[in-house]
Amino acid sequence: MINTEGMVAETATKIYTDLCAREVPHEAEAGKYPQALWDALTENGLPLAWVSEANGGFGADYDETFGAIWASAQAASPVPFAETLIANWMLDRAGLAPADGSASFALSGHTPSADIPFGMHADKIVLFDEAHHEISLFDNRAAVRSPEESLSPDGMTQFIFSGHVVEQSAKTDISRRAIEALILTVRAVQMAAAMETALNLSIDYVCQREQFGRPLSKFQAIQQQLAVAASECAAATMAATQAASAIARHADDPEQAWHEAVIAKVQIGHSVEAVTEPFHQVHGAMGYTQEYDLHHYTRRLWAWRDALGNEFHWSKRLGEELALTSPDQIWKGVTTGDWTGGKVVAS
Amino acid sequence: MQRFNFPVVQPDPALEELRSELQAFLKEEREAGNYRPEPECWMASADPEFSKKMGKRGWIGLTWSSQYGGHDKSALERYIVTEETLRSGAPVGAHWIADRQHAPMLLAHGTEEQKLDILPRIAAGECYFAIGLSEPGAGSDLANVKTRAEKVADGWKINGQKIWSSGAHISHYMVALLRTSPADGRNRHVGLSQIMIDLSLPGVTIKPIVDLSGDAHFNEVYFEDVIVPDDCLLGEEGGGWAQVTGELAMERSGPERFLSSYITLETALWQLSDKMGSDSHARLGKLIANLSTLKGMSWGIANLLSQGVSPETEAALVKDLGNRLENDLTQQVRAMLNDLPAEDWSPDMRRIMNIGVLRSPPNTLRGGTTEVMRGITARQLGLR
Ligand SMILES: Cc1cc2nc3c(=O)[nH]c(=O)nc-3n(C[C@H](O)[C@H](O)[C@H](O)COP(=O)(O)OP(=O)(O)OC[C@H]3O[C@@H](n4cnc5c(N)ncnc54)[C@H](O)[C@@H]3O)c2cc1C
């Protein structure tokens, strides 16, 4: 289970409960940005959770910060909370000060532009340039921002790096795999939380809605669909929790958690279809409306599934690496979670 | 709120020595030609000689005390033994059920004499048990059992029939769910009891049933005026239903629910080595992600069980997900093997793949069907 105890997780949960009620994500989509929610998160220093104390943050445990991310995804957070956490963590890993305001991230090096999640709302963009082992901070407000096609209500923009002045930049010794491990784990936690929230919505709905003189929940066909979805949700939470706990265990070297993070991305990405289909099915036409909440979760699940590479991309990468190790090492990984013995040189 | 209770428990490095010992032993046995690896080995692959060797090494009866021939080890050590024997497709079918299910049952409900007599024999790999739940008219609807045990002067008199009893033909005992008093019209769960039956008693007839893979590991078992002594009633008279439900939680979450066909994948990996294409890489990546996740869930439950918590719904979830994965694994490996010309498959690969295909239907049946598992989950979700 994701750890939802501890000060960071509990503070975030309280803020999201108080300031991100049901109408907030709806209003955000209609153009009313929930500034009060963002301000409360900032005033409590939450976007600095993963910034070291020396750098002005409070070096919180990975573990309970994942609990905060869980809460934000459950509330369909319309502010870039998880993105800012990641961006500030990247800056910190290059010894740079955290971003002033909200931030999003990009991994690049070879391409002049990148897709930026939450690009319309992020104040800053943090770029990891793999080729030069550099982390740089850009001002997003100064850029021309227009929304790109995106499945997510959080939106996405393109950012063209050339022609923009770097605000800060520094060399880093962190690897692409370490950054991938953290980002994929954050996404896994968000996806598991979104799945579970959508499951809960579906359960409530079928218990209330009556057809043929009884609640939908009493029909075995409905029960069986939701039982399958529930098992996928339970697996998603397990995969996300395993990845989160691997990051926490390898706090000094997140690259060590790469396999668990990829496993979570693959496991959960493949489950998206298996849960979104029944969730929409049991809701009937209601689930297809803007007015109802379900789409806050299912649209994000569809978007996160594709972000940074879809389930096929990551299944293939994981399989390719494993194929280079021995079957004995694969067994060792499955049974003991120790994937490092057969470590392959990073691509 | 998180709905299900699956703690993440890191594997314990202290257990890894045991794992290495098992791996060495299994490799030696396999290379000596003492067994041919098979999928579903815990059901269909029984070899009493092999069971005795496992017993000699101390790998059966790990969890009970030495007073009863056990080894005072933890359920987690037992889990490692289970994993490693499944991985290598070893012929563990003879002792599996007694070790997993009936020894704990006897410890909880047996008399001192029974414990002293039977448990050391189970631990030695010399005494086997069959599960007597199903009847021709009682499959998923288990409360419909009709086989009767009637109180007589010196014990119980049993009449009726059980079916699908795995391993009954080589077993010494069966623990059967029997009707000891008539069903109450409203509550069919009352009046059922668990009784241990010595299968060598007069009046017991065992007829093997050949399955579609050509094996004959399960059986019809008939009881005609079979008399067992009083102390063969396990637990409370009339308490059979609750006892069986508790037992099933233990039965449903173990590694045999998702690793039964792992041998198929591993054999293919050795075959394919550097010949795998990108489609196969993607299939492998997905299978490993699924396996690691299920291992996490099953290991989480094993840890809860070792603390005395018995999560029935979580166990049903693991069984449902695990059974789907087992069948998917065989299908995915079949597709991966397209990277090799059929004539390059080793004879072992061919044999194991064929067995895997033929033995896939029972995964989603035995131990409770998929539909029944989903019913348990639905109840937990508040839908029933
Ligand atoms: C290899 C193997 C080994 C076995 N070993 C043993 C053993 O050792 N001891 C033992 O006692 N039994 C054993 N069994 C029996 C096993 O437990 C039963 O097969 C199982 O419980 C299902 O019962 P059934 O076969 O009568 O199917 P049925 O109960 O007739 O079910 C047929 C189909 O209908 C579905 N169905 C039934 N009721 C419902 C419902 N209410 N709602 C929706 N769908 C429903 C089922 O899910 C299934 O898909 C074994 C079975 C196999 C295949």
Task: Specify the helix fraction band of chain B.
Answer: 40-55%
Rounded to an integer in angstroms, the radius of gyration calculated over CA atoms of chain A is 20 Å
Mean pLDDT, all residues of chain A: 94
With strands numbered from the N-terminus, the spatial order across the biggest sheet of chain B is 1-4-5-8
What summary fits the major beta sheet of chain B? 4 strands, mixed
**Rg value of chain B:** 21 Å
- Span between N and C termini of chain A? 32 Å
Order of helices and strands of chain B: HHHHHHEEEEEEEEHHHHHH
Strand content of chain B: 5-15%
Helix content of chain A: 40-55%
Distinct compounds present:
flavin-adenine dinucleotide
Distance between the termini of chain B: 20 Å
Q: Which strands sit side by side, in order, in the main sheet of chain A?
A: 1-3-4-6
Q: Number of helix segments of chain A? A: 11
Q: Could you give the count of β-strands of chain A?
A: 8
Regions with little confidence, pLDDT below 50 for 5+ residues of chain A: 343-347
**Mean pLDDT score of chain B:** 94
Q: How does the overall form of chain A come out from the CA principal axes?
A: globular
| Total helical elements of chain B | 12
For the report, how would you describe the main beta sheet of chain A?
Answer: 4 strands, mixed
